[in-house]
Design brief:
Low-confidence stretches of chain B: 1-30
Strand content of chain B: 25-35%
Strand order of the largest sheet of chain B: 1-4-7-2-19-12
Largest sheet of chain A: 6 strands, mixed
Shape of chain B: globular
Radius of gyration of chain A: 16 Å
Order of helices and strands of chain B: EEEEEEEEHHHEHEHEEEEHHEEEEE
Oligomer: heterodimer
Distance between the termini of chain A: 42 Å
Low-confidence stretches of chain A: 1-21
Structural class of chain B: alpha+beta
Mean pLDDT of chain A: 88
Number of helices of chain A: 5
Number of helices of chain B: 7
Strand content of chain A: 15-25%
Chain lengths: 172, 360
């Protein structure tokens, strides 16, 4: 029975890298809050704690990761759709140099808030074992969902989830 | 030249050298071929040094085995200091070099070794010299990336259900990996070998460091001694598999394999990841029931074509004088500057070339 479940999951996991719809958000069962602080491209510092009150999507990515590159425009679209609302995206580059990341963003016209994790320390503390790996953090700083694999972040399902988390914070 | 050091034999007396000459339990080798001798040259250059620069490269296997004998290491770090150290837990040899600020760091390492094909006859009761329980203990323990409990144990138990002995359990694990995982060409390098992540996320795509480490973790979860063997391809395959060999420039030919241990038979070679490589890459891709795939599947449970150099069995390695944390495994050259650890797969910062030459 378990074998059958794993085989089915393997099929789904395979599909996850080729179909944006298949990588599904899973409720997070790890440590409730995780620290995330690191340099941005401009030499400043980004700290997830400073974003309390906003729902944050934390996306671990790298320039060499094809599915990461493919899903980035959908993160930008979601950010644009929710502009002005208590929402943010942090695109955490996993293990690459400032120069490499800056060159990529300029070349690919990507405009997302970047956090550099040159030494992969953040990746380790967030238990990132593959890319893209993305987390949804609620307005209280608690990690609520995670997903491994590419997906369309601008679809109605994600937008609905983020809006629900924003409403949850507003009513608290 | 005064900094040049030459080690004629592994274990030879030399400053900074601590490679144990450990006799190993040789498995039966009915398919053992003739010994061939190779030299593998690794040259590393750090393009953007900053402060003190350190480089580490894996040396050929420090222990003699039925399939490989290390004949010597020669290394040179002009303007710096260098040596060879033994990683304490698994005995893996590590060539290290260090340069002060202002020097262009270039390390050249030449490893010489002999190798021969190996096959274990699993149909007979073997008389291999047994490994001690103490020597085997570390090969059933979890590592940072390879837990043997939780989801890994659950999956392993499910795979081996109904199997009555360790040979059949190992075979079931091998078959499960061949049938349920896939080689993902998008995986960077050889993969990271994070089996906890792989199983918990049911992410069955990867390369050798993932798929063969999965074999090791699932076997260890059954209490079967198993180990990853990190290395690099050094010659073309004589068996007709273009995807399973590389000669000359082998800079990107890193490949790890796996072994498991049975009393009487000793260490038994396997390589389910290479079965998936044949399926993905051989002649543009092959069906799982293609005769070439079936032949590889049969052969790679119990034998290895030794057109490959074994480096080490090591996990969670603390590199000598490193300022960073442990490394999951050492198969690629590594380096650190004042900026931290460099990405060995980033040719903009970290340039290296590895070449292989058959010398006898």
């Amino acid at each position: 029975m378990i074998a059958a479940r794993f085989i089915l999951a393997a099929v789904l996991a395979t599909a996850a890298v080729v179909s944006a719809e298949e990588a599904q958000l899973k409720p997070w069962r790890g440590k409730a809050t995780l620290e995330l602080a690191g340099p941005n491209l401009q030499g400043g510092k980004v700290d997830l704690r400073d974003l309390r009150g906003r729902v944050v999507i934390v996306n671990f990515w790298a320039t060499w990761c094809e599915p990461c590159r493919e899903e980035m425009p959908s993160l930008e679209r979601l950010r644009a759709k929710l502009a002005g609302k208590p929402f943010e995206v942090l695109a955490v580059n996993y293990g690459e140099s400032r120069e490499k990341v800056a060159g990529f963003l300029q070349r690919e016209f990507v405009d997302l808030p970047i956090v550099l994790d040159t030494q992969k320390d953040l990746g380790r503390s967030w238990d990132v074992g593959g890319l893209p790996m993305t987390f949804v953090v609620d307005a209280r700083g608690r990690v609520r969902y995670s997903v491994f694999g590419m997906r369309d972040w601008s679809d109605a399902k994600v937008q609905g989830l983020v809006e629900r988390l924003m409403a949850e914070a507003a009513s608290a | 030249m005064n900094r040049r050091k030459f080690l004629q034999m592994a274990g030879a007396a030399s400053a900074g050298v601590a490679i144990p000459a450990v006799p190993s339990a040789f498995a039966m080798t009915p398919d053992a071929g003739k010994w061939r001798t190779f030299e593998v040259t690794t040259q590393v250059e750090i393009l953007k040094p900053s402060g003190v620069t350190r480089v580490w490269v894996p040396a050929p296997l420090a222990q003699d085995t039925a399939y490989q004998k290390t004949l010597g290491n020669k290394f040179e770090a002009v303007g710096g200091t260098s040596g060879i150290a033994s990683e304490p837990r698994y005995g893996g040899g590590i060539v290290w070099a260090e340069w002060p600020s202002g020097v262009t760091p270039i390390l050249t390492h030449v490893g010489r070794f002999s190798t021969r094909d190996i096959g274990v006859d699993m149909s007979a009761i073997g008389d291999a010299k047994p490994e001690s329980r103490e020597a085997l203990a570390k090969f059933v323990q979890p590592t940072d990336y390879m837990p043997t409990d939780g989801a890994v144990k659950e999956l392993s138990d499910d795979i081996v259900k109904g199997q009555r002995n360790d040979l059949n359990r190992a075979r079931a694990i091998y078959d499960w990996i061949v049938d349920n995982t896939y080689r993902d060409p998008k995986t960077r390098g050889c993969g990271v070998g994070n089996i906890k992540f792989m199983v918990e996320n049911q992410a069955w795509g990867g390369k050798c460091a993932d798929l063969n480490a999965l074999f090791v973790a699932l076997a260890r979860a059954q209490g079967i001694p198993a180990r990853d063997v990190y290395g690099i391809r050094v010659a073309d395959s004589a068996l007709g598999y273009k995807s399973l060999g590389k000669s000359g420039d082998i800079t990107r030919a890193q490949h790890c394999r796996a072994e498991f241990y049975l009393d009487g038979l000793g260490w038994i070679p396997v390589d389910p990841a290479d079965v998936r490589k044949v399926i993905l890459e051989e002649s543009g891709g092959k069906a799982p029931d293609d005769p070439m795939v079936l032949a590889a599947r049969k052969r790679l449970f119990g034998s290895w074509e030794m057109n490959w150099l074994a480096y080490n069995f090591s996990h969670d390695i603390t590199l000598p004088n490193s300022i960073r944390g442990p490394l999951a495994f050492l198969m690629y050259p590594q380096s650190e500057t004042a900026e931290g650890r460099l990405d060995p797969l980033d040719p903009d910062n970290f340039k290296y070339a590895i070449s292989s030459r058959e010398v006898a």
